[in-house]
Amino acid sequence: MCGIVGYVGEDRAKDILLTGLKNLEYRGYDSSGIAFMDNDIKIIKSVGKIKNLEDKLNYENVDDYKIGIAHTRWATHGEANLVNAHPHTVGRVTLVHNGIIENAKELKEELINEGINFNSETDTEVIAALINKYLDNDVIKTISKVMDLLKGSYSLGIIIEGVKDKIYIAKKDSPLVVGISDKGNFFASDITAINMFTNKFIFLDDNDVAEVTKDDVLFYSNGKKQEKSVNTINIDVNSKSKNGYPHYMLKEINEEPVVLEKTLKPYLEDFSSIPDLTAYGEIHIVACGSAMYAGMIGKTLFEEKANTRAICEVASEYRYKNNIYNNKTLVILISQSGETADTIAALKKAKELGQDTLAIVNVKTSTIAREADKAVFIEAGEEIAVATTKAYLLQVAVISLLALKLAYSKKLIDNIDTYLDEFKKIPRLVKNVIDRENEYKNISNEISNSNDVFFIGRKLDYAICLEGSLKLKEVSYIHSEAYQAGELKHGTISLISDGMPVFGILTDKELVEKSISNIIEVESRGAKTIIISKESLKQNKDLEICVPDVSSFTIGLLIVPVLQLIAYYTAVNRDCDVDKPKNLAKSVTVE
Ligand code: AGP
Question: Domain 3-235 carries which CATH code?
């Protein structure tokens, strides 16, 4: 997944495009580049973070350009090097691309047979070659013709030598938004790249093509001109500040009590506003990464508390399943960005097969928020750290409320006020947990030099392990695995060695004895066990962290911040790039 941004107007394109790129850096930071256009097209590229491009531009005479297209890359086709950095030029065509062209190899072979030479390993260069090949006076028609040849996903920003003052854009399956202002017009992969310049946005739909000039934007779909509605959206810009924290990740963890309060409040004040799922015989929860792990907590609660069959699958697998809808099924899609390609594909599949879809999503203007039958929003605000923390926690909170409502609607619990009061206390309890940072620093010191760490637990505790393990490995680069405590002895226990840290999550009274047996099994093989438990199940171990006793509807909301902070301090101990871990991107908009 990459980020693209472009501008045509009265102001200095360099400043606007660099700002846009910095706000898109969460989408990938292997390399970046800008193509400026006036009577000529000037391209500047660099490997690594946007700062490297900015430094390079300081030595270039580009301040007078008013038009440009820019790109920050997360490598999919070809190494993260300068040759593969965007923008790419073939003949008169220069463009930037976010997405993956699945038939790029075949198209490239045909073009090479026609005598066209390529410099890079990218699929993007193939698009430029095709547009250049078919280029005539009707650029919109040319682009539409090339789109018919492409399989896969793309959002494109295109400039044509000799066609001054115009940028062309096109979209299919990768997000693309236009920004409108009286000093020029913009395009970007998402509004956070340009919301500091305008609050007027137009979202492109699949197969849209547009011609962007300083004073106008003309939209076409399948070659026909079309009008699009303008959305006024105001974004809270102070999310860009770290507010004094050393990293966005720590800032965003500390925001968890506030955003929990903001998200829970309307539902706790009006319980009837929580969607009632009693009509469904089965619930499918589909997401990627941490969002899927939030779904695993939901699955456990739907099954255990609401007596409803629930499956939870990664979207990249779910989208290829067949014969999976036997009962009246609700498909719940969880996504912070609302632009994760695999989750979008799963959403489309569920809708094509006639299933009801409900999205739990943070970005209200995102594709998933707009295309799901119903959207339940979390109020995380902008989450900048690539490793999700506050958004994940809100995903857990919302899906837990859905499970609570379902259990209540099915008359499986009657003391609903007890549970609602518990949810009301959660923001303060989370604040108290977060403030115990010295305990987490101590645990981090115990694991920071480890090569391998395990997290073990049963049922809900296993679901918690999944996120704790992902958080640790994605920010500290320590290899980590979450394992069902009862399953470890069926092979993987052979990996346990002297001093290897194993986190044991203990919150389920009915299973605690069995989980303790599993903890003893690894201890007897040399593991250094670290217990994360709730007060009533305290084991009085040297390395143990207890959180207050709450029900299984909310225990995950107290345990996971502990694991997030342990991961954070471990990454800091290991001098990792906490907010932008290597190889990652915040929103995976490619499949
Ligand atoms: C988690 O820290 C990662 N950032 C990643 O697993 C993320 O949760 C996943 O890519 C899903 O993203 P989404 O919520 O925007 O769909």
Answer: 3.60.20.10
